[in-house]
Amino acid sequence: MNGSIHWAGLALRATVIEGVGVALRTVDPGADRLALPLLARRVWELCCRAPVQVEGVDEVAASNVELLVQTRRDDLRGLCDAIGAKLEPLSAQVPRRFRLPVCFEHGTDWDFVEQHTGLDRERVIGRLIAGTYALGMFGFLPGFAYLLGLDAALHCPRKITPAPRIAAGSVALGGEYLGVYGVASPAGWQSIGRTPVAMGSLGQVPPLFLDVGDTLQIDRIDARAFVALEDRTLREFCVDGEGERGP
Amino acid sequence: MTERTSLEILHPGIFTSLQDGGRPGFAYFAVPRSGPADPALAERANDLVGNRATAAVIEFNLMGAELRFDTPATIALTGADFRWRLDKRPLERERRHEVSTGAILEGTYATHGVRGYLAVAGESTRAAQFGSVAMHAQIHGRLARGETLGFARAKARSAGRTVHEPRPARPVIALGDRQGFGLELLPGPEWNMLDAASQHALRTARWSMSPQSDRVGTRLQGPLLRLRTAPHPASVPVWVNCVQVDPSGGAIVVGVDGGVLGGYPRVATLTGVRV
Known about the structure:
The structure holds two protein chains of two kinds. Chain A contains five helices and 14 strands. By secondary structure, chain A is an alpha+beta fold. Chain B has helices at about 40-50, 195-205, and strands spanning about 1-10, 15-20, 55-60, 65-70, 75-80, 85, 90, 95-100, 105, 110-120, 125, 150-155, 185, 210, 215-220, 235, 240-245, 250-255, 260, 265-275. Chain B has a seven-stranded antiparallel β-sheet, with no helix packed on it. In chain B, about 50% of the residues are buried. The interface between A and B is large, with 53 and 39 residues.
């Protein structure tokens, strides 16, 4: 069933992954960079959230470039049609805005980042804090934030051998993304700083205080301010009030 | 009325964790499925003690553990040979045993496999996250010395409680648990990024499980794999049993605790079907 399909008015190219399911990518190169993660949320609600409306789907996952529906069903065309029939056009939602305090003194890969970008630390920080980032998708581990909107001059390759452990709250560069490691874990990205605030709460849906499309700007803090903010959560740094999404 | 069973970890082994049906259906939120690395063995252990198939069991990797029962318990062991002993006397796997208060169960290094399971009759009393008590390697770590695990079992005549059975997940392969076998390999979306020699190697070479393997991923030891083109830097979804090629040419099979997005080319999928 490789070919084109339309979901919620979006033209997609479907590719079967044998034994796994269907991968979908946008056809229009100018499509909204959040289109797939937002579409995937609707698909997840139909297929994985009780009461399940379309049966037979094991997982729905998405990045900004690919949406994957994992299924044991053989009739992939029938499955895609069933999902498509229940999807409504995506409505624009108002993103919340956050400010993330980051201490750049706690970055551990500055040598690599300076050498790779050809920019000194102050210039890298200047470009970082000038940016506005959007949560593109969940991924890696619960609590990890994949942020879109990184200045192209700051794109850095991932590590060839991942670091065995990075501290919770580490802010890091990986390819075209800016990332925040919500929990301590092994890390393949280049660490440039750390936020003292808790990024999310495990066991909640979503497990991150940010949702897809929410935006974030960085506030530079020093090591002393870092200590003072250590028991705070990102929710308290929502510019639009309490950080709770309305009904 | 419920009967409570309790045991204490005296020595945790190398990587010992509590596993149940895991958290299927939450990949969108980057929640890994977790659950037993070898579900068939876990299910058999549960079956032997009369538990539902995905009730919580203790999973051992490479090495057994030492634990003490603080109440009487009904138990069963499956999987690799850890030379299990109960109060210094050899204990048979693959059958149900009644153990008494104070009994000490000990296992050493695994032979004939790397993983094993201990089922205790009852349901784990741990607090669940996303409907599961499964321990994720990077989030919850492993069971530690001194930790106590509780299991509650409804007595025969009690009112039946509805237990939520997670939706059955896709089979998970248990790589390295048996020796000298072939696995069905299906081409992945980036199969054609491999050069011809690497495609051939992946299909035909003899691969073994690296000691650096864990529940997050199994690192395969064998020929180095080469890519025809540089991989696209964007992250894309990955899945349990997906074979990825890292920048050094190594092959990694995504495990039950593996992340849900990855940046390495997804060259194949192992189905768990022996060929």
